[in-house]
Amino acid sequence: MLLVTGAASIVGRHVVHALAEAGTPLRAMVRTRSAIAADEFDTAELIVGDLADGRTLDSALAGVDTLLLLTRPHPDLIAHDRSVLAAAHQHGVQRVVKLSVAGAMATSPLAIARWHAESEALLTASHFDYAIVRAHRPRQHLYAQVDCLRSQRAFYGCQGDGEAVDVDVRDVADVLAHLALHPALGREVLEVSGAEPRRAADVAQALGERMGQPIRYVDCAPKDYVRALLAGGVARQQADDRAAWQLLLREGQFGTPTDTVERITGRRPRTLRSFASEFAEAIRYAAAPSPRRAAQAASEAAQPVPI
Questions:
Q1: What is the pLDDT of residue 76?
Q2: CA-based radius of gyration for the chain
Q3: What is the CATH number of the domain that holds 11?
């Protein structure tokens, strides 16, 4: 039996679907029932509750041998991970696959990276067999600027000409699912990225080609980028971290690709071009959310992402 925490997050949803397609018995844990559609996880046993609730964790972890630990980017992350790992130990869980963030370390300027670094330390000091998956920035961050792209034909940032190896959240989910279904011997820390480094201007060009009109990348001051994210519904802490990440990109960090997606899943990472096509379609049908793909895109846009 597998348990996926944070199943209502954008990565968690794709993990659950990937595991369900593999036909493995699993439980999906969400904070509230309203976080998912009525039949969204109909192939999984649904657990509703908080990671700080001992009784909920007892129900969720009973009979579980592999835990996929996905925790929302929040100041409670460390406390929640500590509670889950302690309960997992009591229930005899053997393996933990944890979603973390690239650059996780105690001295990072990103709060989320510092939180994950402390959580990783809890896991590496434990008895569990584990895999830690450090994900680069998700391409799906662009959904926070849909309004700007529709009204101004532009999106904002502060990374300058810095290159990024942004990753599709579905690739992250596939790696997590594969590591849960096909555990390797030993403990490992993996970094998951896209295949090629890209500048923000490259992203703008790809979007423009798919949308059929020029798209601009507007390089701005970090405070203005944060303001644009807040207007798009991003929480303040996440907005600050995204700006800090972009400043690191500007300095040349986080621009080196890894081969993790191909090595673990056996296929190449999803391309910027394919993402741009899907993004353009989502915007094109934004005023008519009945098409299935547009509805899915809108759902994903509202979900928290790792950084």
A1: 94
A2: 19
A3: 3.40.50.720
